[in-house]
């Protein structure tokens, strides 16, 4: 099922409720909220307003929901629904502040620790699989230059070094007048 703005909606089969996939549940927010960095005023900077003056900051939960919305829908920051989240540039500014403060790394670590407690992560034994080799069928058609993929071609209108049109005037040297 798809909600407004083309985002996918989750449908709870037992309850019959529809929940947008970017809406943060209260239970999850209780685990995320302690990790949110608190804004700190730089002592080196001269501020025009006293602490607490000016427009109040957006609620952290709303900012987090907006970030999850961008991640879930793949939309650009400027495409955030203004009626739901407000100014996209303010949301993006807080995202950058949180990233610099290490919030997302702390959230990742907390999630890993919780997953390790619930199901257990086999930290002693991990494996990765993969291979790197040329595609066997592509070797015959690939040229030496990556731009030549698909084999050598000749222009339909003219051979290499030839013009596909005839000049109006016969060949003359640069210094000659017509």
Overview of the molecule:
The chain contains five helices and two strands, in the order ββααααα. With about 180 residues, the chain is mainly α. It has a two-stranded antiparallel ribbon with strand order 1-2. Helix 2 packs across helix 4. It is extended. About 5% of the residues are buried.
Features:
178 residues, extended, two-stranded antiparallel ribbon, disordered N terminus
Give unreliable regions as ranges: 1-14
Q: Estimate the strand proportion.
A: under 5%
Strand order of the largest sheet: 1-2
Instruction: Characterize the biggest β-sheet.
Output: 2 strands, antiparallel
Secondary structure elements and their pairing?
Layout: E1 9-11, E2 18-20, H1 26-32, H2 60-73, H3 82-85, H4 88-101, H5 103-118
Antiparallel strand pairs: 1-2
Helix pairs in contact: 2-4
Short description:
It contains 5 helices and 2 strands. The chain is mostly helical.
């Amino acid at each position: 099922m798809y909600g407004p703005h083309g985002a996918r909606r989750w449908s709870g089969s037992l309850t019959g409720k529809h929940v947008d996939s970017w809406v943060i549940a209260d239970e999850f927010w209780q685990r995320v909220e302690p990790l949110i960095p608190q804004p700190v005023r730089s002592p080196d900077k001269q501020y025009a307003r006293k602490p607490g003056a000016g427009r109040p900051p957006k609620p952290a939960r709303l900012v987090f929901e907006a970030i999850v919305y961008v991640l879930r829908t793949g939309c650009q920051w400027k495409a955030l629904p203004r009626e739901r989240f407000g100014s996209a540039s303010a949301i993006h500014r807080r995202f950058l502040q949180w990233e610099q403060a290490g919030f997302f790394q702390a959230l990742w670590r907390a999630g890993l620790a919780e997953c390790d407690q619930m199901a257990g992560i086999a930290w002693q034994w991990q494996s990765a699989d993969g291979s790197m080799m040329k595609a066997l069928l592509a070797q015959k058609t690939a040229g030496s230059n990556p731009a030549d993929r698909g084999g050598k071609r000749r222009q339909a209108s003219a051979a290499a070094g030839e013009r596909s049109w005839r000049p109006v005037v016969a060949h003359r040297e640069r210094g000659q007048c017509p």
